[in-house]
Amino acid sequence: MPSRHDPQPQFEDERLSAAHRAALRSLDRVVEHTAEPTEPAVAREAVLEQLLAGNVLLLTGAGISTDSGIPDYRGPQGSLRRSRPMTFQEFQADPEARQRYWARGFVGTRLMGQARPNISHHIVADWQRRGLLSGIVTQNVDGLHAAAGATDVVALHGDMRSVMCLDCGNAEPRASFERRLEEVNPGYRESVTARVGELDVNADGDVSLDADTVARFHTVRCLVCGSDRLKPSVVYFGENVPAPTRERAEELKAASTSLLVVGSSLAVMSGYRFVLDAQKRGQHVSVINGGPGRADARVETLWRTQAAPALEELDAALRRAGR
Ligand SMILES: [Zn+2]
């Protein structure tokens, strides 16, 4: 489902081309309805029991941030229905793709920067403080769990608030990078945000801009090596989760006794694998999600509801139980 502004790239390198095609297949994966949800009252009791037992590994996805105004990818209003994100292979190979990305991001991050944690993020942070969770893993790159006070969050797909150089590996805080972009693009953001109501903002802070608007945007180079291949520290479609992040996730899996997924369709393998691994360990898996998901037919408890009302109900019940 390419965006109207994204030309299909041609890769000379066959390996790059294969990785790009694999990323597109992942993006195009349609999550079908495969299982009937658990009866809500039964589901609520099962998740409550899980939380009361403690040591729950929590995995969150876009559905926990939609109440903060960040659209998800695959939900009913999902941004994948309008445009697809750039794959890692496109970003890496094509300077024009990078210019398009940063022009859109330059406008989009400001919108994303206005996002605040919602009740779900606050409840999760509170559960962590109350010792109910063994860890928090998120597929989101919005930083909202940490903004709500959660600590040691494993951001599986990275963090929008940092920019890295693909050539020398230097990391630069997004804020410093943004200031540099502002210096070379005076008035640009204002000229675009005047039309912000008409723009589509995606889950990764991306907005759709026309070709002329992209063309007059200036990019900046790496402060250390001068490369123009700068990329947000987020895991793109077609890119692997970095090894240190995978290792932290593995440690958490091993240290947990059950898995609770909130707000994810688990369409992407890096999330789905949590379910497979938990089940290999014989652990109870619950999913709270507003729509169908890839693991629905496998999991013990499937609560088909939005994140916030479910977490509020659970939190009230936990407090009644003195937890
Ligand atoms: Zn560099």
What's the short story on this structure?
With 323 residues, the protein is an alpha/beta fold.
Keywords:
323 residues, alpha/beta, Rossmann fold, 6-stranded parallel β-sheet, 3-stranded antiparallel β-sheet, 9 strands, 40% helix, globular, disordered N terminus, binds zinc ion, NAD+ binding, Sirtuin, zinc, protein acetyllysine N-acetyltransferase
What does this structure look like?
This protein has 323 residues and is α/β, with parallel strands linked by helices. The chain has a single domain, classed as Rossmann fold. 40% of the residues lie in helices and 14% in strands. The chain is built from twelve helices and nine strands. A six-stranded parallel beta sheet has the order 3-2-1-7-8-9, sandwiched between helices. α11 links the parallel β7 and β8. The N terminus is likely disordered. The structure holds zinc ion. The site of zinc ion (ZN) has 8 residues, from loops. The site of zinc ion has 8 residues, from loops.
Level of helix content? 40-55%
Order of helices and strands: HHEHHHEHEEEHHHEHEHEEH
Could you give the count of β-strands? 9
Strand portion: 5-15%
Quickly count the domains: 1
Strand order, largest beta sheet: 3-2-1-7-8-9
List bound small molecules: zinc ion
Work out the oligomeric state of the chains in this entry.
single chain
EC number: 2.3.1.286
Pfam family, one: SIR2
Binding site for Zn(2+): 165, 168, 222, 225
Keywords: Metal-binding, NAD, Transferase, Zinc
